[in-house]
Amino acid sequence: MDRGATLLDAASAAGVHVPTLCHLVGSAEPSISCMVCVVRVAGRGPLVPACATPAEEDQAVFTDDEGIRSARRSAIELLLSDHLGECQAPCELACPTHWDVPGFMDALREDRTDLAAQISHDGLALPAVLGEICPAPCQKACRRGERDAPVRIRELHGHVGRMEVATARPEDPGQARGYIPKEDPGQARGYMEDTPAVAVVGAGAAGLAAAGRLAGRGAAVTVFFAGPVPGGSLRAQAELSAEALEADLRSLERWRVQWRPGSRLGEDLSLEGLLSDFAAVVLATGDRLDSEAWTAMGLGIDDAGRLAVDRPSRQTSRPGVFAAGACAGRGGLAVRVVADGLAAAEAVLQHLAGEPVTGPARARNVRYGPLEEDERAQLWAQAGDSGAGPDEAVVDAASAIAAANRCLLCGCEGHDACRLRQLATELGARVSGFAGQRRPWARDASHGALVFEGHKCILCGSCIGRSDGGLAFAGRGFTARVATPYDQPWATALARTDGSLADACPTRAIRRKRPGPPEGPESP
Amino acid sequence: MSGRTEIRVGLGSCCQASGSGDVWRALQSALAAMGSPADLRDGACVGMCHRVPMVEVIEPGGRSTLYGNVTAQAVPGILRRHLKPVGAGRAVRWGARQTWQRLTRDEAWNRPERFVVDLAAEAPRAFLDGQVRIAMAGCGQTDPIDLSEYRRVGGYKALAKVLSTMAPGEVIDAVERSGLRGRGGAGFPTGRKWRTVAAQADGVRYAVVNGDEGDPGAFMDRMLLEGYPFRILEGLTIAAYAVGAGEAFFYIRQEYPLAVEHVADAIAAAEAANLLGEDILGSGFSLKVHIRQGAGAFVCGEETALLASLQGRRGQPRPRPPYPAEQGLWGRPTLVSNVETYADVPFILANGPEAFAALGTTHSAGTKVFALAGKVARGGLIEVPMGTTLEHIVHTIGGGTRTGRPVKAVQIGGPSGGCLPASRLDTPVDFDALTEAGAMMGSGGLVVLDEDDCMVDIARYFLQFTQHESCGRCTFCRIGTQRMLEILNRLCGGQGRAEDLDTLEALAGQVRQGSLCGLGRTAPNPVLSTLRYFRDEYEAHLAGRCPAGCCAALTAYRVTDDCIGCTLCAKVCPVTAIEPQPYRRHSIDMNLCTRCHMCVPACPAKAIRTGDF
Prior knowledge:
Helix content of chain A is 31%, strand content 8%. Chain A has helices at residues 7-13, 66-81, 90-94, 101-109, 113-124, 127-133, 137-141, 144-147, 153-162, 205-216, 242-254, 271-277, 291-296, 334-352, 373-382, 397-405, 419-427, 490-493; strands spanning 38-41, 48-49, 61-62, 197-201, 220-224, 258-260, 280-283, 321-323, 443-444, 450-453, 472-474, 481-483, 510-512. By secondary structure, chain B is of the alpha/beta class.
């Protein structure tokens, strides 16, 4: 190693993973703040931060043992306990599919219907259908509902789902890769180029959802179903219009999903045959088949005689055979069945990629929890409020934009890139491991290119060296914080700084300003 | 001795806080009225804080009389015992005034005999006999800023010897052989530190005096800086010569204005006497000394934070290595040592390293200054040989508790230290023995606790201090200590949760392991040591009881049948929770009671009990 190399450099050169949070590659001086990169040097008592400890010849360093892991986990848990953030919007968390509602709204506000369509098809698979039959748990959770009325989320995705927009997979994979979802890190997966063949048996909500997610990621999907037309039990739903179902089916067809009507599993086709022709099979047959039929196919059953399905991974007892929906014990609400189909598709994607099949990984989420009265007041004061009133229906592009403008864009736009969240997930940190007093909610949106949300700051200090004197640590003890000189507004203190300051922030406490409606007053 | 009577009054800031300034002014005006028959001098600190303000009268023959707890009203009486006014006119006026005052005022309380401290008596003997004064040698006998007085007690002999007869390497050898270890807390071998600085590549080097004493209840460094600045300056000059530093800094917190003033005066006097500055004593060695004032952050006592602050940056520690001895102030090799460490150096060079090593234990040589405080009967500043047991310090020197209650524990080492129970008072004062027992030498705070002190509350007090003083840089110290504090607050508030003790212990271990600097790494010590020795008290709090009757939320007050109905308790109660009922048993309304504890000592029948009834 070079002289001056740190233990972190040495570990990375040796291919040993040491997690880091506050350390920025290439920065002149390490922040030495998060203490997530702690390691143990033989012969020295306490743990040392690898980012700032010089590597020496013939030094024995332990980078992983129970004590180190637990210290790292505690460091993250302590940071989480003083990190007042909201990884995902309340609506996103309320919907069983956890689709990217704020991203969808943001796309609509910018009049990018194609992107909005991509987001809703990728996240919901059946946006038009759910736009009619979903009880919309998202809207019950909508923060806007606390003040006047929730954003019309269901109507908006139904509206976009019925539109004939270019949601198809691009013919040339080199072009746009479709929408890479703003989702949990374990789930975010790009477009596959080698188009593996996947069979889906059943064309109800679960089967169609699995087919949509798989096709959207580049699989060649064939859907087998007993009836003459796809839709399964959805067609029995009185409140669902034929137009909506047709619109979603056409969208799936644009993603080159193949229909095989009149194919009854166990009669017209066999599981063995499917497994020889396809890389994976998703069973979404509803409640049609009984334990005898499953046993005949060589599939295990549980004590109650139902198909045995491993809950998180949606795997049956046969490798490569997955199950979703009612046949996997997950019936009921359409949106829950859809979510189950999507989850099975994620497991299939893991299987296809040769990864351990664990099902969709759930990332750690922090939430606001109860806010103080003055914090709520600030939050509302800073919320941009432009657009339609609560009672205006979504009928056309203009009213859709107006409705989307009512969205507060809750959640954290940086949640995919957030190093704190990634590490919390990686290290298995509990979000409320150390709940207690926490920093106040505070947003400064006075700057032309930057928004500072002090409640998300973890005091790593990465921004300070890049702020041209505009930022410094202030205070002591638990109330230490990053502040401008004499607490001037950011517009004044950081007048010479542009949006690139946000790139240094690991938690997006500093972020670039969104285009579109103003985020709070330009100058306080 | 001069032919005149000399009167010495301690004017250190703590003596002044106890009223020695008033005594000084009373002496001044009385002496002026008498025609100045005696010289009045600042006697600095003698360490007997339990007897201040103290006045020492040294008669021309050398006979010395010591008066303790002196009030301004007692001053004329004391002067009358020793002095006569100058000139007949003054004698008549003085005599007439004194007679008039004797007639018009009740002076029975101010008879001078009452204030005499007989050093041969048992209590002063017990206080003084166990002590050996090295850092404080001569302190209390000299005017702090009078160079000639410092020289009278042997000052600057060591420097003269070093500069005229010893090479820097020999000085380092001597300090190394003496076994001196840093007095700031960690106990790093001083000689080895000097050798490291001296071994760095040629170029600019610095020496720094760490005078950023911040432990609650500790005042050793302040006393030395205020009362004995030449001693530190001499030690610093020797150290700078040994390591090759041409420039040195005193880093003193600005809450110590008198220390800053006296050190500045001492520097000026030393420069004027060629004991500092260019070509000291013709040796060719030069040293420039500056004073920098800290803004009062505890963390700046940590050496890397101190250096950052000296350079005008935020006082935040950085990891070591590189150590300041290799890369310190402005990247240069820098010797950083505590005030008391420098004060020990002249003794070593003047009397030889063997004389120093002969004191103390194998691995902890010499003496250590302690600020003895808390419930102890005779508090003050004491200096004892290393190896002295806590038992001896608390019971012999300190005379046990002044409350009469049994000693429960000794908190040693301040917020970085720990609490040792009475059963561990056999622990000797020794860097390694104290660390092994779960406490720490620290900078020398020693607080005696009795059975009325709640150990959970004590741990909470110190943790509150360190949490507030954390620089906020690293996660464990900034948030970890806060979460620990919240658990202690819950316990003291009667809202502990079953899992709290395990969480507290685990988190304390991680804060100790994972913090960046010494502040964070030692912050859990008060908690860990009380958990180790007083776990039953924590468990009692969890069960809703405070055995010491100290935590307000867990303590009730009750009047027993011993009540004589004197109404004194009702008179002192600030919230009228006790209704006065003459000649009848009183009762306390616990809904109004704020647990201020005023009524308990006020009761002549000791009829008010605390507990969890």
